[in-house]
Write a structure and sequence with these properties.
The chain has helices at residues 2-14, 16-34, 54-57, 62-73, 92-101, 103-106, 113-116, 130-146, 152-170, 180-196, 205-220, 239-262, 271-282, 297-308, 310-325, 327-340, 356-368, 401-405, 451-468, and strands at 76-81, 84-89, 108-109, 378-379, 384-386, 389-391, 396-399, 469-472, 485-486, 490-491, 498-501. It is α+β, with helices and mostly antiparallel strands and 504 residues long. The strands form four sheets. The protein has a five-stranded mixed β-sheet. A two-stranded antiparallel ribbon has the order 5-6. The structure holds protoporphyrin IX containing FE. Its cofactor is heme.
Length: 504
């Protein structure tokens, strides 16, 4: 009987009718997949089954491509990345509506698989949600204040780091070099000072390893296949990522255990000590207020490195590149610095109100090339309506800060780099935008927790570098592009620079 069935099937399989039926079934399944989208989603491109619009975006900078798609489909559009539904917000109105007016619904996070598989979520400020996230965020913002962020004490530490960075630039003797590693080391050291209580020499083996590890893990980034097919994580393809994670864990644990062994609550050294204090105080109140143990600090410190190194380093890389592209801007900054600060002392945080042109350049760079161009992915906690569209529960919501910063409804000639847009007519005062289409640090409950520190670093590193050097691109190199590369943050493509000392 069974051989009869098999025989009949093989005859059928040979027939062209069956082949046509198979093709029809596959087409039907594909069409069904395409049409399975819930009702009234924001409009957007129709992607392919399983991969969605991933191929359309491959190799193109996402922030740019999303800005183009917004011109085609509207300020709020949807698309599939792999099998995940993504809604992208591209203007001030939709961003305000989601992150301010409907903050309860849109303040959660969509955690990429590459992150979820590597890290415990407990203690995460970047990817945590609900009460544990509120507790760790409240702690972090308070701890930063406690450690001097916004005050002169941290400004002095940043300044020391800026001076060391300049000395390292000077060692190149005006010859071409790629400044990225040195700049990353300098901003990393600001996080080290705050978290570990000390800085590292740039060639210290542990420091080099911590930085390399972060850089390599970030390279797996948002576009990594594992985000769409999580099982790949356990295959040889992702062996390197698993090993990097082990290495990171060992390094961070070593710092935390060393702190635990020498902890003295009467002599607080840094963020880790403050975390231990908070855990101990929790015994006096309810555990729900701070539901962590001492070792959970490892996760927070990791997030601060992740959120605070690449972003700040890339903003400084944009400064250096911009100086080479716009020598007239560099000249005006030099002139202002020479007039206000001179060359006898390092610029200080207190000089900021007297350096309006330098400040306007920094504000314009944060608009023109915002390194956090797509923020950190948010998610819809419930099914909800947004600007008349249906947003299903758990949809990934991306905030296109770059598009808001280039929206012609708010910015005149948004594609032009023009610091004067942030200056009064006489050039003597900084004029900040009064509209909501300027949000380099995000807005709402998930606004950058390190904004104040980032602004201090951005200002102090920039003015110290500009006081000491003139930046040019080596004549033999092709002119670097201002377009930028988007991985997790928006950064300039690699370039070399000559840093010529200005004062003997
Ligand atoms: C110029 C430098 C920086 C820029 C442009 C920047 C920008 C941003 C943006 C756009 C977000 C996402 C907001 C959202 O998801 O809606 C963010 C989040 C965050 N940033 Fe920054 N950032 C910078 C530097 C820093 C530094 C130095 C630190 C800390 C040391 C830091 C800590 C964080 C943290 C912890 C979050 C997550 C907040 C949360 O989810 O509650 N950032 N940042």
């Amino acid at each position: 009987m069974s051989s009869l069935v098999l025989h009949s099937l093989s005859v059928l399989a040979d027939s062209s009718d069956v082949r046509a039926l198979l093709v029809f079934t596959v087409v039907l399944l594909a069409v069904r997949w395409l049409l399975r989208t819930p009702d009234n989603l924001p409009p957007g491109p129709v992607g392919w089954p399983v991969i969605g619009s991933a191929l359309q975006l491959k190799g193109k900078p996402c922030h740019q491509e999303f800005t183009n798609l917004a011109r085609q489909y509207g300020k709020i559009f949807s698309l599939y990345l792999g099998t995940s539904l993504v809604v992208v917000l591209n203007d001030a109105a939709s961003i305000q509506e989601a992150l301010i007016k409907q903050a309860d619904r849109f303040s959660g996070r969509k955690v990429p698989e590459s992150v979820r598989l590597c890290f415990p979520m407990k203690g995460s400020i970047l990817f945590g949600t609900g009460e544990p996230w509120q507790a760790v965020r409240r702690f972090t913002v308070g701890a930063m204040r406690n450690l001097g962020v916004g005050k002169n004490s941290i400004a002095l530490r940043i300044n020391e780091e800026a001076r060391i960075l300049c000395d390292s630039f000077e060692e190149h003797g005006g010859k071409p070099f790629n400044p990225l590693t040195l700049v990353s080391s300098a901003v990393s050291n600001v996080i080290c000072q705050m978290s570990f209580g000390h800085r590292y020499d740039y060639d210290n083996a542990t420091f080099v390893r911590i930085q390399d590890n972060l850089r390599k893990r970030m390279a797996f980034g948002r576009t990594s296949l594992v985000n769409y097919l999580p099982l790949l994580f356990y295959t040889p393809l992702y062996k390197e990522l698993r090993e990097l994670d082990e290495e990171r864990r060992r390094d961070m644990q070593a710092v935390v255990y060393e702190h635990l062994a020498t902890f003295d609550p009467k002599h607080i050294r840094d963020m880790i000590d403050l975390f231990f204090c908070e855990v101990q105080q929790r015994d006096g109140c309810t555990k729900a207020k701070f539901p962590f143990t001492e070792t959970d600090v490892e996760r927070l410190i990791h997030d601060l490195f992740g959120a605070g190194t690449d972003t700040s380093a890339n903003m400084l890389m944009w400064v250096i590149l911009t100086m080479t592209k716009y020598p007239e801007v560099q000249e005006k900054m030099h002139e202002e610095l020479d007039r206000v600060v001179g060359c006898g002392r390092q610029p200080a945080w207190a000089d900021r109100p007297n350096l309006p042109y330098c400040e306007a350049v920094l504000l314009e760079l944060l608009r023109y090339r915002p390194t956090g161009a797509l923020a950190v992915p948010h998610t819809a906690a419930h099914r909800t309506d947004l600007m008349g569209f249906n947003i299903p529960k758990d949809t990934m919501v991306l905030v296109n800060i770059f598009a808001a910063h280039h929206d012609p409804a708010y910015w005149e000639n948004p594609g032009q780099f023009r610091p004067e847009r942030f200056l009064s007519a006489d050039g003597k005062e900084v004029v900040k935008p009064t509209h909501s289409s300027y949000l380099p640090f995000g807005i709402g409950r998930r606004v950058c927790a390190g904004e104040q520190l980032a602004r201090m670093e951005f200002f102090l590193f920039t003015v110290t570098l500009l006081q000491r050097f003139t930046f040019t691109v080596p004549e033999t190199d092709p002119p670097p592009s201002m377009d930028g590369v988007f991985e997790i943050t928006l950064s300039p493509a690699p370039f070399r620079v000559c840093a010529t000392p200005r004062h003997a």
